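Researcher: Before we compare anything, I want clean individual predictions. No alignment, no superposition, just each chain on its own. First chain goes here; please echo the sequence and then give the structure tokens.
Model: Echoing the first chain and its structure:
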Amino acid sequence: MTGNDSPVLRVAGRPVGRYLVRPELPARLSPRPHLHPVTTLAGTAVTESRPADHLHHLGVGVAVPDVEGHNFWGGRTYVRDRGPTELDNHGAQRHTAFQLRDPDGFVEELRWVAAGVELLRERRTVAATGLTPTAWALDFTFSLTNVTQGALTLGSPATNGRPGAAYGGFFWRARKEDAAPRVFTAEHEGEGEVHGRRADWLALTGDTWSLVFAGATERTRRDPWFVRTEEYPGVGSSLAHDERRAIAPGDTLVRRIVTVVADGPLDPDGAATLVRKAVGP
């Protein structure tokens, strides 16, 4: 990894991702460190940042639309009985320090701040690992600790009254192409079948690339997947799907997602094989 504000992740010396530590962004985009671009080993980009359809989609990172009423996702806030509404309620994730920096990963400390108050402190661990000559894995763990004196609750548009919109948590804005990508799990295929379901892994594939997302802990695997393919290509793991999620003072919420990044389109057997290699049986 090189550079103070944009470390580069490498697999066997090959650059596969750039981490933007202090992106200069408008407040309404909820500024936050994120990975972009992320590429396959052959160099195909598999992320987008600030696309025209959703300017607040920033590559790969952690974003939550409602932390006790503060927007750490960006864009409009979904308000019950009003719909998407422009509010002056955006927070920001601020890089504090790297505890560890290596060519293949890092451990970072961040502060989640809104209205001049620190709400959450995060420890983020990111590591890149080679799997095959055409595939590597991005191991992404985030730990959110409530540093306030009271309970904090995390919400989503779904918990605020918009069915099917339980986004918030780990989120990957993928490459947009002329045709929508294929999406499938071991048991289901298509956006309508996989969105909102729990599955050990979920694959998104284009003509020349594949992403396979896997919950790497039992607790992470209990979060349903948030999936979009037709409107835009994006996958996330829902922290607040059916109800708001509370974090007591001093408590920590931890999630770990491992994403296989592969050249070429994978089928279900190929995706499952790479997940076993990346995460274990």
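Researcher: Okay. Second chain, same rules.
Model: Second chain and its structure:
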Amino acid sequence: MLLLLALGFAQALTLPFFARSFAYIGKGIVHDASWTGTALTTLALSQLVALPGWMSIARRIGQTHVLALALATTAAGLALFATGSASTIAGIALFGIGNAGLQMMIWASLADAIDHGDRQTGMRFEGLPVALLLLTLKSGGGLSGALLGHGLSRIGWTIATPLTEAQGARLMTMAWSVPLSGAALCFALVLGLSRWSRASDR
């Protein structure tokens, strides 16, 4: 359960950083407010379209394998986004596809953790694990906003003054590097979950 909570916190802290950067990229780099709308719409639609596929995949392979595949897809989307302006929307779409699988499997893994705890104790306690995961996700999401604000202040973002080319480059790097680092951390936690799952089945 602790590994699952750590996974939830890590992804909530780092992955939303990507979408929250879109407004600043649209205003400070692309100089087109409609770009932000396009980016957010692409992200939402890609997640929506991807969910049936992830549900189908989850019926065929193990949960930790699905988590690993979702994280790899998320990381590939961030890498594609980082390659340049011609690939940014495609990278956002690929990120959304991976993120949909990740979000789905976190809750599926919670159900498994609850069932495992029930088998050990012989009692059913659903409320506490669900509340703990919700608290963890909300805490990570809230701190993600603070992390973005700190990053923007470090690059010198101001509403009235346009970004210089160097500042724009730092903003773009920050937008993909923070969630990519988070995806790498989440992947390490998924490996830990996989080992725990194998040990508990013995």
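Researcher: What stands out in the second chain?
Model: The chain is about 85% helix and 0% strand. Additionally, The mean pLDDT is 88.
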